[in-house]
Amino acid sequence: MKTIDQRIDRLKRTIPQARARKKRKQIVRTFKYKQFSAKQLKVLTWWTDVSPYHDADGVIADGSIRSGKTMSMSLSYVMWAMETFDGENFIMAGKTIGSFRRNVVTPLKIMLRSRGYEVEDSRADNILMIFKGSRFNYFHIFGGKDEGSQDLVQGLTAAGAFFDEVALMPESFVNQATGRCSVDGSKLWFNCNPDGPMHWFKRNWIDKNIFGLSDEEIERRKAQGEELKNLLYLHFTMDDNLSLSEKIKARYRSWYTGVFYLRYILGVWAVAEGLIYTSFTDDNLYDDEDMPVWLKSTAVRTISIDYGTHNPCVFLEIWDDGETLWVDNEYRWDSTSDIARRRADPQKTCRHLWAIGQTSNAWLWSTHPLPLLSQSCGAVGYMSNLRTIPSRMGSGWCQACSRREKSGSTEKDVKGSEQSSCLMYGTTKPQSAGRTNRSSKETMALTRCAITHIQSFQAGGQERGHEDVKA
Question: What is the dihedral of CA 225, 230, 232, 235, to 10 degrees?
């Protein structure tokens, strides 16, 4: 049992700690406001009675990063709710609850307290209780990270919803949350950085919005049966955030190129999905009249190959003038498509494409399964020789070696045999036409066979059974 002196010593140690904790709680952080831009002011006031947009059902703010969307949207959302309603429920949503608290709730509480609002944050229930005078409202925080998130919103009756980074949320969650806003006078608030132009939010909300359309266009689209939405749409750039210095904005502009410059800096809904070269934009496209008339008579011609059986097979005709690579023609064949399945041999991919190699010398570059064919053609016959090989890769033999030869004491046709023999590389096991799987050993056998034939042809020799490769 502790003596009285021990208890006094313990009390002396705890009292300063309690005073420090109390002092920390009494510290009130203030928010230092910068001058608002015209678009930020419009976000803050569009719902007021004096605004020409007060009849809109909501507001959409998209655009570049660091443009001041989130700060003005979150503050305006709470101000509107506290001015319009009392004792109602409101939805506030981000990609996750954690990211929403970090990016929105933390600075929002500072801004609200600096403006005289009282905020109680129940982290266990993820509810903000905000008071102003005799009014108070409940703000429920949700995370819209996947399709199952919609279940969390079901059953709630709300007077408004605010979605931060709505482009990162599934459509089902947004539809469920907006469907909860059934109180008279309820409004919707969306902000996001752009995604692709085919994104569901771009197609179903921004493109189907009457804001910015003429009366004639609105009537025409309604006559076609389109359901148009009535929301104020504002596009932000970094210039709309007056707190950013020119030095910081210049730094951001230097960090991104191509599609990500369009999205992050200009705030454009640009395509990035599937791009290998993310710097590719419309500036890389050209029409026939843009190509120099002298190009094909002076530039180096290249045929690039991305060979595939189960995956699509693609060929490109490229002209190199020493400064620019001009991709002039493309051939693409997908053996799994409906058209290919209706054919007897869906693996015959290059019969027509290789005709482009019969008019002039060319360079041939291949990826898989001919990884070593990166050398000069030198003659039309080189192209003719190669033409026969990819067209039969799916059938299981080297067509350049398709000939009759003796095996032991019996003469047999290589194509009809159980194994196709190649003078330059062992044997390969044939497969029936239309099969797409091939072991790495069989693929390498055909690859080495093809390369050896080509090298032999370049050396000026001609092998027995290869008369079809004459130039």
Answer: -20
**DSSP labels, 284-347:** G---GGGS-TTHHHHSEEEEEEE--SSSPEEEEEEEE-SS-EEEEEEEEE-TTSHHHHTSS-TT
Return d(Cα 427, Cα 119) in angstroms, integer: 79
In terms of phi and psi (left: phi > 0; alpha: psi -120 to 50; beta: otherwise), the region of 112 is alpha
Per-residue pLDDT reduced to its tens digit, 163-220: 999 999 999 999 999 999 999 999 999 999 999 888 999 999 999 999 888 889 999 9
pLDDT, position 98: 94
How many C-alpha atoms does 181 have within 13 Å on its Cβ side? 22
Show the domains of the chain with their CATH numbers: 38-240 (3.40.50.300), 247-282 (no CATH), 294-462 (no CATH)
135-149, 218-232, 312-326, 369-383: least confidently modelled range: 369-383
Which residues have C-beta within 8 Å of that of residue 342, sequence separation ≥ 6? none
Which sign does the torsion angle of CA 424, 428, 432, 436 carry? negative
Judging by DSSP bridges, how do beta strands 404-407 and 410-413 pair with one another? antiparallel
Quick: pLDDT tens for 206-253.
999 998 888 899 999 989 888 899 999 999 999 999 999 999 999 999
- pTM for the complete prediction? 0.59
- Non-local CB neighbours of 406 within 8 Å, separated by 6+ positions: none
Q: Residue 115 pLDDT > 70, yes or no?
A: yes
What are the φ and ψ backbone dihedral angles of 160, each rounded to 5 degrees? 180, 165
Give the residue from 445, 82, 115, 68 showing the smallest Cα distance to 248.
Answer: 68
Asked whether the beta carbons of 397 and 388 are under 8 A apart, the reply is no
**Cβ-Cβ contacts under 8 Å for 282 (sequence gap 6 or more):** none
Euclidean distance between CA atoms 52 and 149, whole angstroms? 35
Average pLDDT of 359-377?
34
What is the Cα–Cα distance from 370 to 387, expressed in whole angstroms?
Answer: 13
The alpha carbon of 301 is separated from its chain's Cα centroid by a whole number of angstroms, namely 33
Long-range CB contact pairs, 270-275, < 8 A, 24+? 270/194, 270/196, 270/197, 271/196, 271/197, 271/198, 272/196, 273/196
